UniProtKB/TrEMBL annotation:
Domain GYF: 39-88
Superkingdom field: Bacteria
Record's protein name: GYF domain-containing protein
InterPro entries cross-referenced by the UniProt entry: GYF_2 (IPR025640)
Amino acid sequence: MESLGKIAARLLGALVLCVGIWLVPMPAAAQELPPLEGYYVVENGQAVGPLPASEIEARVRDGRLSERSLVWRQGMNDWEEARFRPDLGPLIGSPRAAEADPAFNVRDFGTYLQGSWTSDPAQTDIPDMGQASVVNTIAFGADGTFRSLTKMSTVPGAPQPMSVNVEGTGTYTLSGANGETVTISFLGTSLTKIEGQPGNGFPDQLQFDATIKAMDQSTFIEDGSTYRKAAQ
């Protein structure tokens, strides 16, 4: 299954190894861990960990670990924002942590998704070109259509400066909704444009599934990347 954050990687082939956040493998067997122990934390688009409690506390003190930081450890089904974890929330001081059931429930994902969503910037390494910043934007229409734009640009000082845009259009369907997660099936076409390259770009077909987890009314997580809804 491909993710929204990896569309550009597939289209660019050998040029890009991965777009988005590298995730640690999640073992099938859950293991009970002491509070604050064994967490992975997403920092600068990378999963760091497992961390001991002392490192978690240090990150809270210096601000590297905040309410909206993505965390995961054994026993969790998916990445979550730190404010929703019963052991991390009180440490950070999030009022949401005191709720008995912090899970956000979506009655109608079709309505929930309508509008434009943009991912938090992530970084990836491009062979022989250095690091690049990646941002994905996708707009869901009420009529079941979507438009997407993946922007990838090498960071200042990269050996080979480059900017790539991947535009996507097509239709989407929803399945497997359970109030918290839903699978989105995309079908359409894409056009990859490399800045400075002649021609009209490189067309391709889009067909993939992505499972998202709703965190609140304007935030969802997909494959470890956080997407935020634009104000309407």
